[in-house]
Amino acid sequence: MESFNLTDSKLIKLYKNGNVKAFEILLMRNKSELYYYIFSFVRKKELAEDFFQEAVIKAIQTIQQEKYEESGKFVAWLKRVAHNLIIDYFWDIKKKNLFSIDDNEYDILNSYIFSEKSIEDVMFNNQVLHDVVKLIDFLPTPQQSVVRMRFFQGLNFNEIAKNEEISVNTALGRMRYAILNMRRMVSEKEIDLKLK
Fold first, then answer.
1. How far is CA 129 from the centre of its chain?
2. What's the confidence (pLDDT) of residue 117?
3. What pLDDT, in 10s, does the model give residues 103-130?
4. What is the dihedral of CA 175, 80, 153, 173, to 10 degrees?
5. Do the beta carbons of residue 151 and residue 85 sit within 8 Å?
6. Domains (ranges, CATH) in the chain?
7. What CA dihedral angle connects 189, 193, 194 and 196, to 10 degrees?
8. What is the C-alpha separation between 139 and 57, in angstroms, rounded?
9. Phi/psi at 99 (5° precision)
10. Could you give the CA distance from residue 186 to residue 135 in angstroms, rounded to a whole number?
11. What is the DSSP track for 8-56?
C-alpha cells in the first residue's frame, strides 16, 4: 500500500477522512518507540501495556474530535499524551497513599484530599507538577531514572538499586545529585515551584 510512504501528517489527514488503515500504519510506525518510552517510566510490562493502550485510545479520540493540533512529530505528541497519563496515575497513587486510615491520630475526613480547591489552585498545582517533570527531563539519564522510580513509582532505595543493578549508595548519590541539579535549574531559571 502506498500509504506506507506517506508522512505522519498525511496519514492523520487520511484517518480524519475515514481511512482506518492510515491510523494502523501510524501506529505500526510509532508503536515501538512509544512502548519503550512508557516502559522506561513504569518498568512493568503489564502497566506499560495498559498505558500504551490508554495513550492510543486518547490519540484516536483526540484526532476524531478534531482536537489534534500538529506541532512537530506525531510520535513526540503521542509520548506527551502517555507522559501525562503516567504522571496523573502516579500522582493519584501518591495522593491516595499520603494518609493512612489506620492512623488513629489523624482524622482522614479532614484530609486535603476531601477539601474543595478552586480552579486556580488546581491549575497552579498542575503547572508546578509539569514544571517539575520538565526539570527531570533535563537531568542525566541515570538521575532521571532514580527520581522517576522514587517519586512516581514510590520505590524505596533498595528496590531502585535492585532495578538499576547498582548499589544503594549509588542510588542515594544519584538522587542527591538530581535534587542539587534541579535546585540549580530552578534558581537559574527563576522558576516558582511552591505548591498552594
1. 10
2. 46
3. 444 333 344 433 444 444 444 445 556 6
4. -10
5. no
6. 1-104 (1.10.1740.10), 116-196 (1.10.10.10)
7. 130
8. 30
9. -125, 140
10. 8
11. HHHHHHHHHTT-HHHHHHHHHHHHHHHHHHHHHHH--HHHHHHHHHHHH
129/133 Cα distance (integer angstroms): 6
Position 35, amino acid: Y
The count of residues in the chain is 196
| Widest Cα–Cα separation across the chain | 67
Q: How far is CA 146 from CA 46, 125, 175, 192, in A?
A: 21, 23, 6, 23
- Going along the chain, which residue ranges are E strands? none
Rounded to 5 degrees, what angle do the CA atoms 32, 55, 7 make?
60
**Do residues 160 and 151 make contact, with C-beta atoms less than 8 angstroms apart?**
no
Q: What's the grid cell of residue 146?
A: 532514580
Q: How far is it, in rounded angstroms, from Cα 168 to Cα 101?
A: 31
CA dist 160 and 176 (Å) reads 14
Residue 60 has pLDDT above 80, yes or no: yes
What would the pLDDT profile of 143-181 be if each residue is shown by its tens digit? 988 888 887 777 888 888 898 999 988 888 888 888 888
**What amino acid occupies position 147?**
V
What burial letters (b/e) apply to 95-110, b meaning 16+ CB within 10 Å?
A: eeeeeeeeeeeeeeee
